[in-house]
Amino acid sequence: MIAERNKKLYSKGQYTWFLIVFIVPTFALFCLLTLYPMVRGVYTSFFDWTGTSSKMTFIGLDNYRKLFDDEIIPRTIQHDYFLVFWKVLLILLFATVFAVALTRLKLRESAFFRAVFFFPNMISVVVIGVLWRFIYNPNLGFLNSFLSLFTEKPVSIAWLGDSDLALAALVPPSVWAGIGFYMVLIMSGIMGISESLYESARIDGAGEWKQFTRLTIPLVWEQIKVSLLSIVMTTLNGSFLIVWLMTEGGPDNSTQVMGSYLYQVGFKQYQMGYATAIGVMILVLSLLTTVLLNRLLRRETHEW
Amino acid sequence: MFKRMLRVSLWVWGLCVLYPLFWTVTTSLKSTGQFNLGHAWDLPRLPLQFVNFSDAWQKAHFGTYFLNSTAVVLSAVVLSLLLSATTAFIMARHPFRGSGLMFGLYISTMMIPTILGLVPLFFFMSSLHLTNSLTGLSLLYTIIQVPFGVFVLVGFFKAMPGELEAAAAIDGCGIFGTFFKIMLPLARSGLVTVAIMNALAYWNEYLFALVLVGSPEKYTVSIGLSFLQGEMQYSVEWGVLFAALIISVVPVFLLYVFFQRQITAGLTAGALKG
Questions:
Q1: What is the C-alpha to C-alpha distance for residues B167 and B173, in angstroms, rounded to an integer?
Q2: Three-state DSSP class for A76?
Q3: From residue B197, how far is each of B143, B152, B178, B206, B228 by CA, in Å?
Q4: So what's the pLDDT on residue B270?
Q5: What is each CA distance from A92 to A29, A170, A252, B67, in whole angstroms?
Q6: What is the rounded distance in angstroms from the CA atom of residue B227 to the CA atom of residue A273?
Q7: Contact, B207 vs B220, CB < 8 A?
Q8: Does B266 fall in a domain?
Q9: Taking CA atoms, what residue in A is nearest to B5?
Q10: How many Å is the Cα radius of gyration of chain B?
Q11: Could you tell me where this protein is found in the cell (chain A) (predicted)?
């Protein structure tokens, strides 16, 4: 055993001391600032608490019952999964196509494209929010002025102000900012495929398209699966940031997602107990979704 | 045919990524007067309004925010590296009873939505007088990246040949000397990757800073930017907003230019944890 052998290198008293100094400070801070708030979050969800008073009233499952009575909750869940669906579809589609193009075509400019496509992944959600809010700005933004090139009258659509459009308008920024990373992930898979496989496919008369569907896709299925799960998780756990920055859940809750609603209920309406119950709901839904998808995708791998 | 379509799609998407960025730069050089004409596509008129940048830096206080962010990011990067490297070293080379469980605990919190603990975290920090304080923010940032750091660095320490540690120990380096003088330098490439990934994560962090920091003189760059965006309802200094946006992106851009390889490697390592 490596541990036994390494242990013998040092005197016993020094060794114990060393373990404590190296392990305990990190773990103590981690327990206080990460584990404790999470456990406490579950605990708080059984109380009625405004946050400002020290009085916490135990109310059992009432906060959870409230989840079922609250008309906004089903809408937030629906909005979250709307974003999940479109992000998964569009990001995976673009990321896979670009990954293939940048690896298989052997273009001179592929390093350039790779660097450019990845860059939006680097910038903060705040910057993306500010930038896209302006792109969508009805009078000054360049989306409307672009569309106006094709119409007689100037277009003045309030993309983020229209409750029918606002949620869909949140998809492009998320896709724009998300593609690069998953593209790099899938590229690493493609670069691991041996060139001789492609050669023998060519000899068998498989065209580019057939090589793509029969060879590339099955062999990078693992990367695609990881990407899919990662998009689902990060969307369910983090979509509220872009929502909060671009629409604050409005207009009229038409873009409210679970996380942004939690923030509003907790930090604007001071219903801390109810807010943490929403947090537990997010945890449960994201875990359930991941487990379910893992099952589904595993079955699909066998079919290949 | 297939090839040409792919190639065209690359150029189209390249334009979709680059144009908004180019446009941000041109916009930051426009005057408010030109803005209100509404021709979003126009290039800025001469003279270029570099004054937008000095306004963002001074009048909109981005100088302060920039310093705040820098202080928080640097201190948290150093602390987080120290805390995660020590733990990763033990887990990789000196596992003890329960270290597997502890590792599992660190990793599993990467799967749990941070927002679940947000409310209790706020009140806990507040009871320790660590809200509205850059020290508190830095401490929190240190911890939130520890699981990632431990995860990546355990791999690095595991891959090191055992003889090196033995040789150092026999030479009488002592256990701390062995760690700081021999093991850490050997893990340099892992440390660099983790440091850069953490620096990016901290610089871009929004949620915790929003919840924990209340007074404007303590804003970080991301909070400052979202605050300035909110102000746009009342004032219309778009040029200043976009100058501020560029100021906030410059450090990220520089990191990306110099460390592109480590960044893509670091992100991929983080994603494959699942």
A1: 9
A2: helix
A3: 14, 11, 26, 16, 27
A4: 65
A5: 37, 17, 31, 38
A6: 28
A7: no
A8: yes
A9: A101
A10: 23
A11: Cell membrane
Question: How far apart are the C-alpha atoms of B29 and B13, rounded to whole Å?
Answer: 25
One-letter amino acid of A168: A
Question: Which tokens hold the place of A121?
Answer: 């992944």
Please check whether residue B144 lies inside any domain of the structure. Answer: yes
Collapsed DSSP state (helix, strand, coil) of residue A1: coil
Beta bridge partner(s), residue A48: A57
Residue B273 pLDDT class (50, 70, 90 cuts): very low
Q: Which residues of chain A have pLDDT under 50?
A: 302-304
Taking CB atoms and an 8 Å limit, are B267 and A275 in contact across chains? no
CA distance A89 to chain B (A): 17
Is there a contact between A41 and B109 if contact means CB atoms under 8 Å apart? no
For residue B84, the chain A residues in CB contact (below 8 A) are: 26
Alpha helices per DSSP H over chain A: 2-7, 12-30, 36-44, 62-69, 72-104, 110-118, 125-135, 142-147, 166-169, 171-191, 195-203, 208-211, 217-219, 221-246, 258-267, 272-303
The answer as to whether B47 is a domain residue is no
Q: What is the CATH number of the domain that holds B185?
A: 1.10.3720.10
Taking CB atoms and an 8 Å limit, are B256 and A283 in contact across chains? no
Q: How far apart are CA B241 and CA B9, in angstroms?
A: 32
CB contact under 8 A, B222 and A126: yes
Q: Do A259 and B200 touch (CB under 8 A)?
A: no
What the block records as the tokens of A206 is 């498989």
Within the 44-73 window of chain B, which residues sit less than 8 Å (CB to CB) from chain A? none
**What confidence score (pLDDT) does residue A302 get?**
47
- Enclosing domain of residue B263: 88-274
Domain count, chain B: 1
Return the pLDDT at B149.
94
Contacts of A101 in chain B (CB under 8 A): 6-7, 9-10
Residues of A in contact with B20 (CB under 8 A): 131, 135
Please tell me whether residue A57 adopts helix, strand or coil conformation. strand
The shortest C-alpha distance from A164 to chain B (Å) reads 23
Q: What angle (nearest 5°) sits at the alpha carbon of residue A251, between those of residues A245 and A253?
A: 90
Q: How far is CA A251 from CA A161, A167, A254, A255, B226, in A?
A: 6, 10, 6, 7, 19
Residue A295: CB atoms within 10 Å: 10
Residue-wise pLDDT for B31-42, tens only, equals 777 777 666 666
Task: Count other Cβ atoms within 10 Å, centred on residue A43.
Answer: 13
One-letter amino acid for residue A301 of the chain: T
Say what the ipTM of the complex is.
Answer: 0.90
Quote the CA–CA distance of A7 and B200 in Å, as a whole number.
Answer: 37
